[in-house]
Amino acid sequence: MEEVQPAYVVQVPANIRKLILWRYIYATWLCACLEYVLLGLFLVVVHFEMGNTSDWIKQVFTNTLCSIYTWTLMQGLHVGVGIYGLLLFKMHNKRPIYYATRMERIIRELPRKLTILAVLLYVGFYSGFFYSRFAEDLKFISLYYGLFCGLHYFMRVHRRRHVFPKLPIARFGLRISVKWICWNSALLALRETFLPALFFCVCYFFFTTFLNKPQTWIYTWSAGVLITAKLHIVRQIYDVVLNLKLPLVIEKGLHPNGSQSQNICLRTMIWELLKQWICDPFNENPQCGIEETQLRLTLSEALSTKFLYGFQLQAAKDFYDIVSCYDSPKCREIFQLNRCMKAPWSELRDVILEMLDEFIKNMEACCPQPSMSKQQKSLGEMLRHSERQARLYLGMRPLVPPFPKFTLTKHYPGQEHRCLNMKNPQPYPSDLWAFLREMVSWMNNAAKIILENYVCSSRRLEQLFKSNVCSRANHELRCAQPLILIIQGLATVCERSLTEDKYGVVQSDLKRIFEILINVEQQLINAHELTYPTLQTRLPATLDKSYHLLRVSTGRSLDGMLEAFGPYLEHISDKTLLDKLRERLKNHRSV
Amino acid sequence: MSAPQTEDNNETENANELAPTSSDTGNEVQPQLIWNPYENSWSCFQQLFATKWNQLLVRFTARFPSLVNAWQTYQKLSGILHPSAEMLKNGTETPNWDEVPIRFLAPHPKLNWMALVTGEDKVLLFYDDDRMPTCVEHVQQQHVSCVVWRPSVITTWAVGCAAGIFIWLDVGCTKSIHGSPMYLLSNSGHTFVTSVQWNRDGSILASAALGTAYILLWDPDDGSCLNSLPFPNNCNTGYRILRYSPRYTWIFCAAQGVGASMWHIGSNEWRLQEIRVKGSVQSAAWSACGSFLFLSMKDSTRLYAAYCETSVFRGVKPKWKARFLINLERVPFGGRVFDCGVPQAIAIDPGNIYMALIFRDRPFVFLFILIARDPLELWPADIKQPSLSGAYPVCVRFSSMKETSRILAIAWSTGNVERWLLTPDYVLEHLNDIWVKPPQ
Predict the structure, then answer these.
(1) Domains of chain B, each with CATH number or no CATH
(2) What is the pTM of this model?
(3) Residue B222 · residue A545 · CB < 8 Å
(4) What would the pLDDT profile of A368-393 be if each residue is shown by its tens digit?
(5) From CA A521, how far away is CA B373, in angstroms rounded?
(6) Is A358 contained in some domain?
(7) B248 touches chain A (CB under 8 A)
(8) Which residue in A93, A192, A463, B286 could disulfide with A308, CB within 3.0 to 4.6 Å?
(9) Domain range for A264
């Protein structure tokens, strides 16, 4: 039965699936409430009358909360916002994909970008249409202006390359977060829409004579502000809900109130959420529904969810937060033994060390491994490290780079095979689908040859089609972003074990942890060799930003651990490791 | 004034040798410039561009005052203020900040090194060996208010200045992502940084500035600003003071105007708690145990201790309350009565035994002993006076040398720094004196 199930069902545990679904529903619910607030604000502007305040307020309430017409019209907006939220959730949890060239990335990311653009245009257009239903003067202008707002928002936020999820350093209560988001987004929208609204009205003025009513500009601007602010707020609300604290525990066991923790019931969670909202819409504890159903995820379970990248990253952040907070009782559980005299740490340790091992293996596969001793510096190595300096030292003039070969027919590994087969031409394919595939692949090859020989004469265009030496390593480093926080958390656990580990639960693993961290650092040093200029690579290769972050965090964690365990290093029996650690400690102290 | 004992005097001299000061070393020790910003053409261009841009702005402001007012109102609503160097003068703990030759003093938390900020906005690093002191400066590094060493990394420090925060790395060895030994963390409006704090492992940097009505949290490795801490009740002034508690579970923030707040840093989320203070906070320091926060207010001679009142019942939020501790207007000590006046800066010893205070326009540093019992008490222990006449203290810091000894470093307005080694014997002697004759 498992074969027919989608990959996420197989790879993501049921509890995590339910948790993510609950978060999606919660965020969409918040956005639905936001629509009413924004409409209320718009109506306040449209029905503004100085003399008749009671009528004014009545109009606002009649058209928002007490109107079935409004509710029906709003469903179209909810659908658009819901789809946008779904795309944001997908983007958040998507693992980085390996693209050999920039062109490949552009081509493969295009459908996703177009989907987002379509959804944003729909939301913008429908919002314009929705607001125009409540202001007679805004018949057409708001439709076009809504479209423009959607397009402008896309260009501002989603045009660029996919940005990986940024985790907040500090999480605040939902009330503070929503207040802060709404205020900042409103101010941003005020600024962003001022000039476009003026421009739109001037353009409209040339075609129609609507400026007989000067309030139209105010209505248009306020509609634009609300649409832009809504798009900003929606994205940030989804972000906030996605980054809510995970209900993590070190080990699944008894609930604090004494009952056995069990699996989550989604229906109960939603029911509890509704009850909570009726009583207190902005409760300080937005995890309502989770506490009641006693959902608990173990840290090891959350960290090993490789399928959901954003979720794994968040679990890593939560792990770091738990272990670095000295007030948190959860961290103390790591150093304790359970009823079966088993340490909950062992499961967590296995997951973390397995992740680090996997990273080391992946890096070994894509980075040059040192084959000779670093002490011997041959001419080749000198050239490899700094070609210019070596040449200066030897008095050699720089080599002229070879002129690129101008060939019309370039043989690719796959293409050679097909060329050989052309000697015995096959009968015309009867299957239309196979024929189309063949055509597409032929066109691809032809396009590649044309691009390589004609278009790539320009240096900038060449970069689109040339693969970077570091691209594979960069991909592995991007995938390993959760390790940045995990390594720091691991070092903190080790440092805390000095004072809190009564049973020697963590300290028995110190040797292995040191070994792996030294190895991780070594792999990162090896990866840096990829950036050295060589005679073969004309374009300078660069490593991703995550490389620097990982290297800095690994170095800092190792330094901190060595500083803490410096006096006890002689207890390590492995001579080679001990020498490496001593040397490192010496370097660290003798700055 | 009670002079240090003979044994302590010897040790004090030893301590002074560790950090040669400008007055001690004379012409022989000239700081070594390791980063000459003027060699960089890009920096020169930046400076030129900034000058031209400022000229244009001045012209525009004069021509369209109403537009400028509207823009400033919008910026105020966004929490962006427009501070000046004059405001910074009142915003730091250093007395006469713009006149004194040493503006700030930061001993290294692990090594016997020290960083000094000079009146010319240079950062001088003094080492414990024969190395020449290092001078660090940059075109944009102006109006420097503070320097903080990064924990768990030996040779990285953050400098708060008018442009933002400069992160200087292991000079000469490491290069940042940006390819140079330093990089600037800047954000829209976050100008005239007054206070910078690292978290426990140096992975987060918090900064307060006069330019924004919120505090920023940075990822210093990435160079990106990830969060901002809003001020309660939409207070539209910048921040002056930031202080992490010793266990990094609280962060205290004091505004330039009236008000202060405390954020509880839990593993789940940050929770805001307001502290009701009537005036503007002049200086603040945590006790080493983290139970008390000592506060002094602007233009007040009183010293307060804020403490967290917790409840045994579940669900009751802890509350921060400030309690009056001592009036420092007239302090009797050694048979004399000292007219101390308004406290300017507070420093607490990492061993939680001493508190050092400097006062506005007073030529001495008063050392108190903390008696951590209920109610908390402060007993006068010693007075440190300058070796040169006419000098007054501008900055005072404690640092721990070994487990039992600590160093008291005092920067004087004449440009020299004195370091006093406080050994356990020294502490015991003072305690005995006080025990025999408790203060009246």
Answers:
(1) 68-214 (2.130.10.10)
(2) 0.79
(3) yes
(4) 766 544 444 555 555 555 555 555 55
(5) 48
(6) yes
(7) yes
(8) A93
(9) 248-339
